[in-house]
Give the backbone structure.
Amino acid sequence: MTAALIFEQILNGLQFGLTLFLMAAGLTLVFGVMGLINLAHGSLYMVGAFCCAWITQQTGSFWLGLGGGVLGAAAAGALIEMLVIRRLYDRDHLDQVLATFALILIFSEGTRMVFGSMPLYLNIPAALGGTIALPGVEAYPVYRLFIILAALAVAVLLYLLISKTRLGMQIRAGESDREMIAALGVDIKMLYTIVFALGGAIAGLSGALVGSLRSVQVGMGEPVLILAFVVIVIGGIGSVKGALIGSVLIGLVDTLGRIFLPIALKFFMENASANSIGSALSSMLIYLMMAGILAVKPKGLFNATN
Amino acid sequence: MQRTDTAPKPVSMPKLSRETIVNIVVMAILLAVPLWASSIGEDYYVNLASLITIFAIAGVGLNFAIGQGGMVSFGHAAFFGIGGYTTGIAAFHNFEETLFMSMPFAVSGTNQMLIIWIVAMAVCGIAALAIGAISLRTEGVYFIMITLAFAQMIYYFAISWPAYGGEDGLSIYLRNELPVVDAESALTFFLVCFILLLGVIFATARLSGSRFGAALGTAHMNGTRLATSGIDPFPIKLTGFVISAMITGLAGALFAELNGFTGPSMLSWQRSGEIMVFVILGGVGRLCGPAIGAAVFVLLETYIGEWTEHWQLLLGLALLGVVLFARGGVMGMIAGSARHD
C-alpha cells in the first residue's frame, strides 16, 4: 500500500461525495423551502442521464448532451411540480412519500417503454479522456477530476445564488416564512416551481456526469437517492452547507472503507474471511456512521430549521 | 282481548357499521375464492390468495405503526426480509445438516414452521428494537429517511455476505412442516396464512383499543400531552414499532415458504414501498385496509401484468390518483371516513 494509492482513493471518494452533493443539494433545498420529501428526485437524476446519453448519441457532442441532460431534468422537474407536487405541499409526509413513489414507478416504466431495458453507454468525451499527473498520483483520470471541479463550481454558484441574489433572498425568505413573503407580493407558486426546477437541473447534471462512468439504465437514480437521504440526514435537513459536508464525508468513508477495511481486517484474521467480513462491513459503514451521528445529534450536524 | 305488551320484543341485531360489513365481505371473499378454486383443482388461484393474505399480514404490521402510532416507516422490507431469511437459513442448515452456530451453544437448523415463526418474530423484534431506538429519536421526514436507510443497510449486508447466497439468495427445497396438518398442500397453507391474518388483525384491533393503544395514539398526536399525563412517549412508540415489525416479519417467513425462496429482493426499498402501498391503497388505520390494498395490488400485478409488461406505469397512475383524489384509500371510498367511536 503506497501513499499514491491512498491519495488516489481520497480523490475518488471526493468525486463520489461531490456527485452525491449534487443530488443532496436539490433534495435539501426542496425540503427546506417547500417542506416536501421528494422520492422522485432520483428519477430526475435518471432523466438527466438518459437525455445526455440520447443527445450525445444523436449529435455526437457530449457538451450538447450535458446541456440537454440539465435542461431535460429541469423541465421534467418543473412539469411534475406543476402537475403533481404542487398539490402535495399541504399534505402530510405519508401522502408525499406515496405520490412521489408513484412518480418513480411512472418515470421508470415510462423510460423503459421508450429506451428498453438494455442500459445505454455513454463514452467519456475525447477532450476529457486520458489521465493527468497530479502531485502524489502519477495518472489520475481527467474525467474524474473534471467531475470534482464541476461539482465544486456548482457548489460555489449555488452559494452565490442563495446568499447574493434576489432569487436567493426569496428562497431564504420562503424557508423561514412562506406566508409572509407571499403577502409581500412574491409569486410563491412561481418561486416553488423555480426551486424545484433548479433542484432537478442539478440532479440532472449529476446523472449526466456519472452516466459516463457507469451505465445509463432504469433504476440508476434510487440507490443514489437513498445515499443522498443519508447525506441530508447527517448534514441536517434544509442546510446546503450540511449537504456539502455530509456528502464529502459519506463519499470518503464509503470509498476508503471498501478499499481499506478488508486490508485492515487481514491483520486479525485469515484472508478469505477478512475479505467477506470486510466487504459486508464496509457496505454497512456509512449507515453505521449515520446511526452514530444521530445518536449524538438527532437533527444532524447543521440543522437549518432549528 | 289480547294484551300487546306481553308480545316478545323483537331481538334487534347489533347495528353493524358499514366498515364492519365491508370487512366481513372482504374476508369472506378472500376465504371463499381459494376454497372454490381448490375444489376445482386450480391451485394457482389458491397460491394467489395465499400471496394476498401474506402481503395483507405485512400490511397489517405496517398499518399498526402508521395508523396507530403515526410512525411512517419506509423500511419495513427490512423486517419482511429478516423473516424470510430466518426461514431460509433455518431450512438451509436443516437441509445441509450443519449447525447455525456452535458457540456459545449449538444451534441447528429446523424444518418446523412454528419454531421458525417464533424465531423470525423474535429476530425482527430485536432488529426493530435497535433500529427503532435510533430512528425514534427523530420524527417526521427524518424518521422516513432513516428507516429507509437502515433497511438499505441490511439489504447491502445480505448482498455482500456470501454465506447465505449473497445476491443469489437461498432456495428452500422442501416446504417446512407443521404439526398435524400437511403444509405442502396449497389449500392447507392458505388456510394457515388466513388464520394468521385473522389472528394479527384481531390482535392489532385489541391492542389499538387497549390502554397501550390509546397511549400510542396520543404519543402520535400529542407527545407532550402524553408526557404531561405521566407516560413517557418514547418506550410506548418503541414498543409499537417492535410489534409492527414482528408482524411484518411473520409475513416475511410465510412469503419465503410460499415461494420456496428467500433473497435480497425481499429486503429492497421497492418492497418497503409496496408494503406501504398496501396500507395506503386500502386505507390507513383501517382494520382490513391492508387486505384490500394487497388484493388490489396483487390482482393488478397479475392481470394487467398478463396484458402488458408495463403494468407498473398503471400502478403508478392508480396510486397517484388515490393519493391526490381519493384520500382514505379504497376503504375510504366504500365506507366513508374512519369512525371514532
Summary: DSSP finds 13 helices and four strands in chain B.
